[in-house]
């Protein structure tokens, strides 16, 4: 577009300063609100991904083929040592740890508790499962341990057991045979959540192999430094694991968590869309008023031979300039807010207590906003996108105006 | 084949407002040759503006044939009509209708830019035309900083800057005092002489009619009379207007 046309668009914005200021302010506030919501959304993504993965799910998990369909803890990996090595050599990996699970009935005296007993590597497990670090009594498992277990406080209480007590663990082994073994409690974990504590029962990988009669591990759980790269890394790892094994991401492993997150995001995005729609309507209204004010002038331009597309482009150009100004102001308003949220978080502790448990994961109910380079492109996209959409009706109205009719109208 | 710039054959125009029909033109027959300086006169509501709008490709006739510069306007698309207005027809409006946020030179450049002229060429042309019209010292003033006469001269500059073959002017002197009206008419005639532009202008002002070589009178949407004067009215160069041209006092 030529220089005079651009000058015309720029100066036209300055004709009604109050209307321009209000439009820019409307766009700015809308952008700042949308930015804040998106920042919280991203922060919540991060929180769920981090807390979920550190609660034992992992960002990635190598599982036996068809495990996702059956979710059968008796399934074992085709070659877990090969898979573990592959996972440990994955770029950006923080830790990879093997596990084997079994449905077990724990009994002491007259007390019985059904649990999912997990066989683990005592060295790497605490890096992948942060709750297990909260051993309040005794100690955690060690390499070479045999016949010992660590349980959650809730499990111990239901068994009426304490450190040093011997627990009878009974499981169904190969061929349906009932297998039993005695396990001594060497550590009690208290996370602060009964729900979490009731799910903690760990032994070494060797002990669970012996109890179930099934050798190997049922999964290799992987934590990576950047959870947002989980999908890409899944592809890489899937190509490296043993034939017959497959790799799942954290949201495939915990679909209920992903579902909850998506539901939350959908709600806040819906609110964001409402905000943007209000901005669009506001800008469209102001733009239309500007077009009506200049109806005769635009008719003169059409009479002088300005094509419909060029007239529409002027309207769109004016809207985009408003969008740029609004976006810049929106950044000026939104950046401090998002920066505050990134550093101090949105604290829900007064409402939810110190911790909030969801699907076996403990969440600190403080959501920290995400703060990154995406903010600039996000705000500009919202501001320019909204104003572009807002300009369409005024532009259409302009090109539909018959110059002869408009020129006949009062000056 | 006629070399007429304008050919109207039985041109009718009817406007519908609700259930009412207004017949603004009732069969106009008119032919205007190249370089003619024609006044269109008649009482209010006689159809002068409607005819100018049709000739300027702003509107379509309800009936009849309308040929301007060899183009049958009633068969052209909106886009083709816009292109014709841009390249071949200049407009001068009664209320000047300059773009208020642009300076005098930008108002003229605007039209040249629409034609796709390069930045340098259009700026040079705009300045040249404005200087020819005696506006060299107000190039960078906005319309509100100009007198009525100056504004209308900028409007004329805008209309002729692209060297159109036909200029249509709707009561161009209606908002001007006598002296400025005289100056404007002399300028328009001067531009006609130099560039061969055909002028058709509507007016109520007898002094302005005096400049016309031919006077067409419309009454009730029909041509009531079409009188060609035997000789060209006296023509002078306006003082202070025109580059390196001899100034002659206005009589």
Molecular structure report:
The complex is a heterodimer of chains A (411) and B (251). Chain A has 411 residues and is an alpha+beta fold. Chain A has 2 domains: 2-52 and 258-408, no CATH class; 58-253, no CATH class. Chain A has 16 helices and 14 strands. In chain A, the strands form 3 sheets. Chain A has a 6-stranded mixed beta barrel. In chain A, helix 2 packs across helix 15 (374-400) and helix 13 packs antiparallel against helix 15 (374-400). In chain B, strands 6-7-8-3-9-10 form a 6-stranded mixed beta sheet, with helices on both faces. In chain B, strands 2-1-4-5 form a 4-stranded antiparallel beta sheet, with helices on one face. The chains are: A alpha+beta (411), B alpha/beta (251). At the A-B interface, helix 1, helix 12 and helix 16 of A face helix 2 and helix 3 of B.
Layout of SSEs?
The complex is a heterodimer of chains A (411) and B (251).
Chain A: H1 3-13, H2 17-54, E1 60-64, H3 67-70, H4 80-88, E2 93-108, E3 111-120, H5 125-128, E4 135-138, E5 148-152, H6 153-159, E6 166-172, E7 178-189, H7 194-197, E8 201-204, H8 205-212, E9 219-224, H9 230-238, E10 245-249, H10 250-253, H11 255-293, H12 295-303, H13 308-344, E11 346-347, H14 349-352, E12 356-358, E13 361-363, E14 366-367, H15 374-400, H16 403-408
Helix pairs in contact in A: 1-13, 2-11, 2-13, 2-15, 11-15, 13-15
Chain B: E1 6-17, E2 20-32, E3 37-41, H1 48-55, E4 63-68, E5 71-72, H2 78-88, E6 89-92, H3 104-114, H4 119-132, H5 148-160, E7 166-170, H6 178-195, E8 198-202, H7 206-209, E9 214-219, E10 222-228
Parallel strand pairs in B: 3-8, 3-9, 6-7, 7-8
Antiparallel strand pairs in B: 1-2, 1-4, 4-5, 9-10
Helix pairs in contact in B: 3-4, 3-5, 5-6
């Amino acid at each position: 577009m030529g220089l005079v046309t651009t000058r015309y668009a720029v100066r036209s914005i300055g004709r009604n300063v109050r209307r321009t200021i209000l439009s820019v302010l409307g766009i700015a506030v809308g952008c700042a609100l949308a930015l804040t919501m998106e920042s919280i959304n991203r922060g919540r993504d991060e929180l769920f991904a981090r807390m979920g993965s550190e609660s034992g799910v992992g960002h990635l998990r190598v599982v036996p083929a068809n495990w996702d369909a059956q979710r059968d803890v008796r399934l074992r990996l085709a070659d877990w040592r090969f898979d573990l090595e592959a996972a440990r050599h994955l770029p950006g990996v923080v830790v990879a740890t093997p596990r084997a699970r079994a449905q077990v009935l724990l009994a002491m005296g007259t007390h019985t508790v059904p649990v999912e007993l997990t066989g683990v590597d005592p060295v790497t497990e605490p890096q992948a499962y942060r709750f297990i670090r909260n051993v309040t009594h005794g100690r955690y498992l060690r390499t070479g341990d045999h016949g010992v277990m660590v349980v959650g406080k809730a499990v111990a209480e239901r068994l009426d057991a304490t450190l040093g007590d011997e627990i009878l663990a009974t499981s169904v082994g190969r061929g349906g045979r009932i297998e039993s073994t005695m396990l001594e409690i060497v550590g009690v974990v208290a996370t602060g959540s009964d729900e979490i504590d009731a799910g903690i029962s760990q032994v070494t990988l060797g002990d669970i192999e012996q109890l179930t009669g099934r050798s190997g591990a049922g999964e290799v759980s992987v934590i990576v430094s950047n959870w947002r790269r989980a999908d890409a890394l899944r592809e890489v790892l899937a190509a490296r694991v043993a034939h017959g094994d497959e790799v799942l991401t954290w949201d495939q492993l915990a679909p209920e968590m992903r579902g909850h997150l998506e539901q939350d995001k959908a709600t806040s995005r819906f609110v964001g869309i409402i905000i943007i729609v209000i901005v669009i309507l506001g800008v469209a209204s102001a733009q239309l008023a500007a077009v009506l004010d200049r109806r005769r002038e635009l008719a003169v331009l059409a009479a002088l031979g300005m094509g419909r597309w060029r007239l529409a482009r002027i309207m769109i150009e004016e809207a985009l300039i408003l969008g740029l100004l609004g976006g810049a102001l929106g950044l000026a308003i939104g950046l401090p807010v998002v920066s505050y949220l990134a550093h101090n978080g949105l604290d829900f502790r007064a409402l939810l207590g110190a911790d909030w448990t969801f699907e076996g994961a403990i969440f600190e109910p403080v959501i920290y906003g995400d703060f990154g380079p995406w903010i600039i492109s996000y705000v500009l996209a919202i501001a320019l996108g909204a104003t572009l959409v807002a300009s369409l009706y005024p532009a259409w109205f302009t090109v539909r105006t018959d110059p002869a009719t408009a020129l006949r109208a009062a000056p | 084949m006629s070399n007429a710039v304008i050919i109207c054959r039985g041109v009718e125009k009817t406007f519908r407002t609700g259930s009412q029909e207004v017949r603004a033109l009732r069969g106009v027959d008119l032919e205007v040759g190249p370089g003619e300086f024609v006044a269109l006169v008649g009482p209010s509501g006689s159809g002068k503006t409607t005819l100018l709008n049709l000739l300027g490709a702003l509107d379509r006739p309800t009936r009849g044939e309308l040929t301007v510069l060899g183009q049958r306007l009633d068969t052209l698309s909106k886009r083709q009509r816009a292109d014709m207005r841009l390249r071949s027809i200049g407009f001068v409006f009664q209320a000047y209708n300059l773009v208020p946020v642009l300076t005098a030179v930008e108002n003229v450049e605007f039209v040249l830019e629409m034609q796709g002229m390069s930045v340098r060429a259009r700026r040079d042309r705009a300045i040249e035309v404005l200087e020819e019209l005696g506006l060299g010292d107000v190039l960078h003033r906005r319309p509100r900083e100009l007198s009525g006469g100056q504004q209308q001269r900028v409007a004329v500059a805008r209309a002729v800057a692209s060297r159109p073959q036909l200029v249509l002017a709707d009561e161009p002197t209606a908002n001007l005092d006598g002296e400025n009206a005289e100056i404007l008419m002399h300028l328009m005639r001067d531009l006609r002489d130099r560039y061969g532009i055909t002028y058709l202008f509507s007016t109520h002002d007898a002094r302005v009619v005096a400049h016309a070589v031919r006077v067409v009178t419309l009454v009730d949407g029909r041509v009531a009379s079409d009188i060609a004067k035997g000789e060209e009215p006296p023509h002078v160069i306006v003082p202070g207007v025109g580059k390196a041209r001899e100034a002659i006092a206005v009589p």
